[in-house]
Amino acid sequence: MVDLRGPHGRLALGTVVFVAGGGSLATEIAASRLLAPYFGSSTIVWANLIGVVLAALALGYWLGGRLADRRPEQRLLGWIVLAAALLVATTPFLARPLLDVTVEGLDEASAGAVVGSFLGVLLLFAPPVVLLGTVSPFAIRLAVTGVETAGAVAGRLYAISTAGSLLGVFLPALVTIPLLGTQRTLLLIAASLAAGAALLLGPRYLAAAAAAAALVAVPPGTVKAEPGLLHEETSLYQYLQVVERDDGRRLLFINEGIAVHSVWRPDSVLTGGVWDAFLAVPPLLARPLERVVILGNAAGTTARALGVYFPRARIDGVELDPAVSRVGRTWFGLSDNPNLTVHDADARPFLRRTDTLYDLIVVDAYTQPYVPFYLATREFFALVRERLAPGGIVALNVAAVPGDHRLVEAIGGTLAAELPQVLEWPALRFNTIVLGLTRPLAAAERRRLLARGHPDLAPLRLLLARDVRPLDRARRPWTDDRAPVEWVTDRMIVSFAARGGSLDEDYLPTRP
Fold first, then answer.
1. CA nearest 4: which of 193, 170, 168, 157?
2. Quick one: pLDDT at residue 101?
3. How far apart are CA 149 and CA 364, in angstroms?
4. Which of 182, 186, 207 shows the shortest CA–CA distance to 195?
5. 75: part of which helix (H) or strand (E)?
6. What angle do CA 155, 161, 165 make, to 5 degrees?
7. Using CA atoms, how far apart are residues 101 and 378, in angstroms rounded to an integer?
8. C-alpha triplet 283, 305, 235: angle, nearest 5°
9. The model's pTM
10. Phi-psi label, residue 76: left if phi above 0, alpha if psi -120 to 50, beta otherwise
11. How far apart, in whole angstroms, are the C-alpha atoms of residue 96 and residue 182?
12. For the chain, which terminus, N or C, has the lower number of CB atoms within 10 Å?
């Protein structure tokens, strides 16, 4: 064993503190990717993850200080770090069966992502993080030789730990997860921790680091099993899954796999889903549709259908994740519309940069049921108003549940603070189309305009004319400073689950 009081010992101890700091944060980043296919990546999931990790670190700090006072032995610290390495190495292999069981049990209990993500983090990631939390106070106890230098030693080691944490945040997020995947990232974390433990335990324990590194060669396999799986990947932003049903439909799932984000059918561009609802809107323009932007293009379901029924329209499809666009080209016919231009960009910055005026702005950039708050505020809708041509329309897909339209009313009421007329159309049980018009239309005029158009879309236009109703301006419109999207959505979901609601599929009556 190395003498911790000499220069080599101080270097070894600093290295252990560095890899422990990096390992704790890298494990947290990897945890978010393991949880996303099962529970999504909403604010509440991240809150559970951050909260449990902080609690685990706090417990580790306390335990580390107590253990170090009772047994200030470098071998004990080495065994703690090695145990953390072993726990991290087993995590990717335990995650799938444990999370599968958790999801199935909580789906039956209607507990959902809130409880599920908490239990997942607690069972899989809290134990190694507790052990890693013990390292810094333990190392300080071993390094301090006198009261007169205690402050300097503590400051130096905590600075080293923080530097490791910074690397643990950025290296997995920007390099190893996109290039190697989550499983191999966790195994590399385990290997680095085991190598750090060997500095305290002796060279022969490098075999543990070599074993963890060797496991990198194990193929990751399917992250989340699904009948008819055609493709899956973990992109820089999220987890993607393409599934083919027995009837030939292809579905794009993102993260938790509850909401369908794109659909492709071999025989028709109509899907029976919410994407068809946007096709009923253009007749309200009272002129040919020429320019469209789709904020949240996903794999191009809406753009593909617009290309068939409105072939003159030039479309800008804006999608944040380039991997989603790539999947769209491979599996969903994204390239079928020659008038579609795909932009890999965030919705609001794209709209701010462009000078184009659009006849129709489609906002479907929501990860159901959660809405990015900055796409639901008065400032965003003011920008939308500036980018609409005279007589233009904005159409938003907003989540709702039967009997509870709190989110629709909040977003529609905010939109009404910027546009002269706002309408809601409950197209499906869980999807409401909110329309903002720059030119108000009386009910009789709406019915007259919707009576014309392609016969395939007549049932949709009939439903729109019959079921649309006005929305009033909110008394307190949401702003960039205050937009409690998650709070409203979570209350809506909990109330629906308490009533025994279930997420059954329903379809629009289109004629393929």
1. 157
2. 67
3. 59
4. 207
5. helix 74-109
6. 140
7. 42
8. 130
9. 0.78
10. alpha
11. 12
12. C
Strands ordered across the beta sheet of 239-244: 229-234, 239-244, 250-254, 260-264
Residue type, 172: P
Q: Find tokens 């560095």 and name the residue.
A: 18
Q: Which residues of 198-208 are buried (b: 16+ CB within 10 A; e: fewer)?
A: bbbbeeebbeb
Distance, CA of 451 to CA of 30 (rounded, Å)? 53
Helix then strand then coil, % of the chain, to nearest 5: 55, 15, 30
Q: Which two tokens stand for residue 510?
A: 């289109």
Helix H or strand E encompassing 427: strand 421-428
DSSP class per residue in 203-265: GGGHHHHHHHHHGGGS----SS--TTEEEEEE-SS-EEEEEE-TTS-EEEEETTSSSEEEEE-
- At residue 178, φ and ψ (nearest 5 deg) are -65, -35
Q: Cα separation of 454 and 286, whole Å? A: 14
Q: What's the token pair of residue 428?
A: 């499906």
pLDDT at position 110? 38
Per the structure block, which two tokens stand in for 228? 């008819």
Q: With a cut of 50, which residues of the chain have pLDDT below it? A: 105-112, 511-512
CB distance 49 to 119 below 8 Å: no
The three-point CA angle 40-45-50 to 5° equals: 140
- Nearest of 304, 311, 496, 509 to residue 403 by alpha carbon: 496
Angle CA 298–438–276, to nearest 5: 35
